[in-house]
Amino acid sequence: MLYAIAHILRDKLGWLWNIIESFNGMLFSLRYGKRMRDISFTNIPEGYNLVALRDVSPDSMVEFFEHQPEEAFKYFCPHAFDAKSIKRLQNNRAFMGYVLIDQFNGKIAGYCFNRCFFHGQGFRGRLVDVAYRGKGLGTAMNKILNEAGFGIGLRLFETVSKDNVASYRSALSASNVKVVREMPHNELYLEILEG
After folding, report:
1. Higher confidence at residue 175 or residue 24?
2. Residue 47: left (phi > 0), alpha (psi -120 to 50), or beta?
3. Residue 156, Cα to own-chain centre: how many angstroms?
4. What is the DSSP pairing of strand 108-117 with strand 95-102?
5. Cβ atoms of residues 166 and 176 within 8 Å
6. Number of H helices, E strands in the chain
7. Left, alpha or beta for 136 (phi > 0: left; psi -120 to 50: alpha)?
8. pLDDT digits (tens, 9 = 90+) for 118-160
9. DSSP one-letter code for 162
């Protein structure tokens, strides 16, 4: 129910969603801010750097999203992809966004995030650049998001379409999951379990 309400607010009442996100960010920072400084990552794939979203230029992120084929957004539409929206996410204290940068050429190979809520839940999302698919980066980013979320004490969730085979397999191979419920359009609402 909360998931459905959040999507209605985000998609239909953007101005109200922005207010709620700001308020949530303040409360989240009060509750989890100190813990966020102690997160350590052990699942960064060799040959890549993990960079916090706030340290990446919005224009680089816009270019990354524009480079993806249209089919990439069939299952991935957690937010708008323009510079203004990216800046808003960078300033949102409850949005734990990360970018994988290829050490060889400096290109963004993947983007992932936990969209967090002050009541102790986070929702995972990730997108692998079209040129980097099939290299295990989606699975690695899921593990990174688990380390970040579980590291500060969140319960993690995600929706995944069974039709999006690569993402579905990545979610299952990186984590223990429990199907909370089946949703319309062949989507599963998953809880990610520790361990």
Report:
1. 24
2. left
3. 11
4. antiparallel
5. no
6. 6, 7
7. left
8. 999 999 999 999 999 999 999 999 999 999 999 999 999 999 8
9. T
Q: What residues form DSSP beta bridges with 124?
A: 114
pLDDT digits (tens, 9 = 90+) for 82-102: 999 999 999 999 999 999 999
For the record, the structure tokens of 114 come out as 């936990």
* pTM for the full predicted model: 0.88
Reply yes or no on whether the pLDDT at 41 is more than 80.
yes
Tokens of 159: 């929706």
Q: Which residue has the tokens 């380390």?
A: 147
Backbone angles phi, psi at 41, to 5 degrees: -115, 130
Give me the chain's average pLDDT, please. Answer: 89
Pairing of strands 121-128, 155-161: parallel
The C-alpha atoms of residue 168 and residue 61 are separated, in whole angstroms, by: 24
Tell me, what's the pLDDT at 129? 96
Side chain identity, residue 105:
N
Number of residues that this document lists for the chain: 195
42 contact partners, CB below 8 Å, separation of at least 6: 147
C-alpha distances in Å from residue 110, one per residue of 48, 51, 145: 10, 11, 13
